[in-house]
Structure formats: structure tokens, C-alpha cells
Amino acid sequence: MIVRYESLDPEFFRDINRKKLTDLFLELLNRTSQDVNAALEHMERIWEMNHIEEQTGISFEEFREYLEDQGLIQENTSTGRFSPTRKGDMEIQKAAFEEVFAGLRKDMSGNHPVPHPGAGGERLPETRPWEFGDSVQDIDFTRSIGNALLRSGGMVDSLEEDDLETHETEHLTSCATVILIDISHSMTLYGEDRITPAKKVAMALIEYINQRYPKDVIDVVLFGDDAVPVEVSKVARIDNGPFHTNTKAGLQAALKILQKRKQANKQVFMITDGKPSAIWEGGMLYKNPFGLDPKIVAQTVNEAAHLRRKGITLTTFMITSDPYLQEFVDTMTQANKGRAYFATLDSLGKFIFADYARNKKKRV
Does the model's pTM come out above 0.70? Predict the structure, then answer.
């Protein structure tokens, strides 16, 4: 595990309280892939360096006991080591949701969670003739009265059915989503932590779906040398490793999962920072980390096209500024007729949530 040390804003330690300290601990827990013991060690150093006991009157041991009392961590009495609890997992997911949405709320005003699922819909400016069964609320009365004036020559006593026009709408359909997360070595290359923001966005999306679209389903697949599904409740625990980038295996795993889902819309979100550099061939891992290998690229693009033939949209989020990869991403996107974004780590959340909402809509 690679840990990058960063300075903390001195303002953070003003008016310090248990909530602030708990939030900091959850952030450390996320960055250490839920290694509670490592997170506690980092927290203890922060405690000493910033004289937190002097400011709060709370010793580090008391804070650790507080975390246990809150049900966020638990101790194995036989080994003396700590592990996260289910509640701890959920708190990290909620924290990721709040952090990602803090920058999105202005763009999503009026879009609030509801305690029960509904059909939902968004009125469009275009209109069409009203038909029996259409909602009265969607009738465009300005156009309808205009039609009545044209029919009657300027005198309107009443509206007839043929006068009525209704706004077209986009209805939200059920959706099955697979998030593919690149766990190759480059996700922490050159000291830049890309894996933590990637999994934060995944956790925020999971929390968002659970709150707003409980009938939707989301799966997470990690891809390095191979592709491995992971339980959504375990996303905070994932980490990258010394792996190549087998994008083809990730796409194949996503297809296998989505073919079993009954939701109306099916989509794949892929978060990656590098080119495909490996494929399985004859039971062996064929790999080439240098440049874009034509064999690897061709098979990966074919897999993207296969998704499209199955009616599955692929949206790729490249969290890198390397223009060398743009041609490959463009080719893969054209094969799937999907979308691609060259997103910064800061804008990743905004793009993913915008596309999730867009892909749920069906024009009626």
C-alpha cells in the first residue's frame, strides 16, 4: 500500500470537535482501503503533532473507544487488531456522497430524494397532439387555445379534443449499471492518488441510487490483469496493485453481469487512467505496456462493439490529460456509439451523475 502524506489545513483544527475528528478518521480509513490499524496509526500521529488532546481534553485512547462505541470499528479480542464494521462501511459511503454532491448541488437544484419510488418525468418544450391517456398536467394550453382560435375563426367558446396539444416528456426507466474501476499500478503512479477519487465517486453513485432510485441496480467490477466483481458494500476497501490494464476482461465481465439483469436500460461506466495493455490469450496473459499494441486494441474495441450489439451503452471516463490515448478512446467510443470524457479528478463526479440521469430517460 502506498501512502502519500499531505499537509492539513490549519483551519481544520480550529474549533475541533468529535464530528470533525470522526470525518478525518473516515477519510484516512478510505485512503488506507479500510485498514483500520493503519488509519489509527496515522490518526495518532496527527493527534500528537496537532496537540488535539490539549485543545479538546480528549485523549487518543478515548477517541478510539468512542469509535468503538459508535459501532464504526471493532476489535478482535484474540489478535488485538481492529476491523471496520458494516456501519463503518455505510458511514464512509455517506461521507463520499456528501463530498461529491457538495460540488454538484448548485447544478442539481430541485432534484431531491423522495421516500418512495415513482415514474418520474421531465417536460420537454416540444408538443404533439393530445391522446387519450395523456396526463392533463402536460397539456400546453397556450398552443391548445391557439388551435381553437384557428379552428373557430377567432371566437373560442370551448376546447375540443382535436385542439389539445401536450408536451412530450422523458420518463425515467429502471436501470442496471456496472461501474468498471481500473486498479492497475498507474492509478497511484508518480505519487498521484487516482484510486481514492475513483472509488469515492463509485460510492457516492451507489448511495445516490439507493436513496433516489431503489429499483435500480448497480454492480462494481475491478479490472487489472483480470476482471473481478466486488460487492458494492466493499468498494471502500479496494486498492490498486502491480497490475496491467486488461480493459477487454472488464468489458466482458460487465456484459456477463448485465445479461442477467432485467432492467430496461443497461449501461457501463468505466473509470480508467491508462491504455489497455493486456488480454488473455490461450490461457496466458498477453501483455505489452509499451504503446498501443494493435492486437490488444483491436480485441478491446471489438468487445466495446459487442456491448453495443447487446444494447448496452459504454461511457468512458479517462482521468488523465495524456493526448496519446485520445485516439484509442475515440475509436472505442465510436464502436459502441457511447460517450467519452477526459475528466479531471475534480470533475469526474459531475460527469458521471449527469450521464446516469441522462441514460435513465426514455422519450414518450
Answer: no
Tell me the CATH architecture of domain 175-363: 3-Layer(aba) Sandwich (3.40)
Average pLDDT per consecutive 10 residues, the chain (364 residues; last block may be shorter): 50 77 89 89 90 88 93 90 88 81 49 34 70 76 84 77 78 84 87 84 86 89 96 90 95 97 90 89 92 92 94 85 74 87 72 71 48
Domain boundaries, the chain: 10-84, 121-170, 175-363
Select from 96, 114, 115, 116 the least CA-distant residue to 104: 96
CB 66 within 8 Å of CB 43: no
The CA radius of gyration of the chain, in Å to the nearest whole number, is 25
Give the length of the chain. 364
Phi, psi of 318 (to 5 degrees): -90, 110
Task: Tell me how far the alpha carbon of residue 321 is from its chain's centroid.
Answer: 20
Contacts of 38 (CB under 8 A, 6+ apart): 1, 3, 32
**Grid coordinates in use for 360?**
435513465
